[in-house]
Amino acid sequence: MKNDFTSNGLFWKIVITLTGLLVVVGFAYVFITVNLSEKYAQERNQRLNASIAEHIISEVKPYVEGELDTTATDEIMHHMMAINPSVEVYILDEAGNILNYVAPYKKVKLKKVKLGPVREFISTKGQEYVVGDDPRNPGKQKVFSAAPIIDRDKTIAYIYVVLASEEYESASEYVLNSYFLKLGGRAMLITLISSLIIGSLAIWLIMKNLNRIIATVKSFQNGEMSARIEVGEGGGINDLAIAFNEMADTIVGNIENLKSMENLRRELVGNVSHDLRTPLAVIHGYIETLMIKRTSLSEEDREKYLKIILESTEKLKKLVEELFELSKLEAKQVTPKKEPFFIQELINDLIQKFEILASEKNIKLKTSTLPNKALVNADVSLIERVLQNLIDNALKFTPHYGEISIDIDNTDQFVEIKVSDNGPGIPKEQIPFIFDRYHIGDKRISLDNNNTGLGLAIVKKILEIHNVTIKLSSKLNNGTTFSFQLPQYENA
Ligand SMILES: Nc1ncnc2c1ncn2[C@@H]1O[C@H](COP(=O)(O)OP(=O)(O)OP(=O)(O)O)[C@@H](O)[C@H]1O
Ligand SMILES: [Mg+2]
Fold first, then answer.
1. Which of 84, 234, 333, 481 could form a disulfide with 241 if both were Cys (CB 3.0 to 4.6 A apart)?
2. Mind listing the pLDDT tens digit for each residue in 308-317?
3. 434 lines ligand 1 (CB under 6 A)
4. Is the whole model's pTM more than 0.90, yes or no?
């Protein structure tokens, strides 16, 4: 498959968006830098020249006996201007009115300066950034230096020095702006190009991996169920690859389950029709005979035929019930409802139930006499079914005057349950098949023909859904023991 993600436009769309974003951010950056640097320059100017007004006062006494001495002030102020042409010097009265000034070209438009910023400047000793009125540019604010003129402990006037004169400012503004513009522009250009290269590279890498994922998803969609994304080299989108693989596994697992359930259903239908055919044919045959020979049949024969029919219907009933039970278990439609119960109590109940059957064969059915208070955690009715089937087998296959015992043994986490008899045992070669459905073992011991061979298959399945395995030890002519372990209920 060719790498066509650059041709499908998405890659370029992302790159163009990224470029646009970077240009906007770049311009914002330059704008902010120039603005901040201008403010920085002004603040710096103010701090450096904060004491200029103080200095002028220390050089000259502008007031002589309460009167403004203009010749003295003019001289010193001209002097100042000569040294530092970037300043404009004003003398303000206590209301802020401009009394005297030295400024290039005398273009002073304001008659009065707001005193608020002047007082703030004086109280903070010029350590804070304060801007005040620019007498030559009404409405414009400038950095300044100021000092009070004190006569007999009273402020009678102020000296107000605007720090950057108009000419100086426009020149410095130009130098400043062009300098920072160049600096900002260059930084922006470098940032833009490098971000673009890195960004595009990252997008290219992600898209490349994404493309690989898309290719795999497409082949999965086209029926290639084994298609999986290689995890590990997926860069930042490994999680996506893992999630897809897990999803694909789940889908495949579900399909397999459906397939096996379908197979099971077919097998079941086949088995049922086969197993039902025999007893049905028997019933059918005997009923037909009864009808044909209605008058000629002896009472004894009629009785015999009806008994055969009854037995066959019983067998049918049992077969249908057990098949239904097993197929439900095999289709995983049964989930054990686990709850704590006393296993010894269940065994005692079962012994009572089977006692009559046992006494018919003079079989001794016993359990340990010691009371056992073990609590197990399992589905009580399913475990009852297991024990019923095991006891039923033991009773069926153990000859008269035999002995059957059901014992329990506690270990740390488990309770072991054993059902043993001293019957004929199971031949070695039969053991591997004993739990298969329809497996009816040793014909010599299958006394009645009411066997379906489903009993142990059901037992095995029930224990399987409890995650428990059943063990079997048997010696020919020496008895059989079935045993399994159930988890003890832990009182948390
Ligand atoms: N306690 C036992 N002693 C000797 N053989 C046994 C014993 N339990 C089971 N078997 C052998 O295992 C076979 C399978 O047992 P299973 O319970 O599955 O079927 P079944 O008892 O023959 O029929 P069903 O239980 O459906 O009536 C039996 O037919 C029998 O040959
Ligand atoms: Mg059985």
1. 234
2. 999 989 988 9
3. yes
4. no
